[in-house]
């Protein structure tokens, strides 16, 4: 036992039918983005970006003089 960190092989080679499956940094599965460290940082950034685009589109559609009515915005 030692405190020195070992340099381990980070890439794992997996074969199916004698073909190597490539290792990826992130994977989208059922709408959730997983990264290689199982953190949700990438997923949170993706959802925040998507929400930001939607908010800007709603802001463009909801002006005082023109655009969607107040009742339509409440429905949305």
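-> sequence recovered:
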């Amino acid at each position: 036992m030692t405190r020195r960190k070992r340099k381990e092989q980070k890439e794992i080679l997996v074969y199916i039918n004698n073909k190597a499956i490539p290792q990826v940094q992130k994977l989208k599965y059922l709408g959730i983005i997983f990264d290689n460290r199982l953190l949700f940082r990438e997923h949170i950034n993706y959802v925040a970006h998507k929400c930001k685009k939607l908010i800007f589109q709603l802001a463009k559609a909801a002006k005082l003089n023109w655009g969607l009515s107040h009742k339509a915005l409440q429905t949305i």
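The mean pLDDT is 82.
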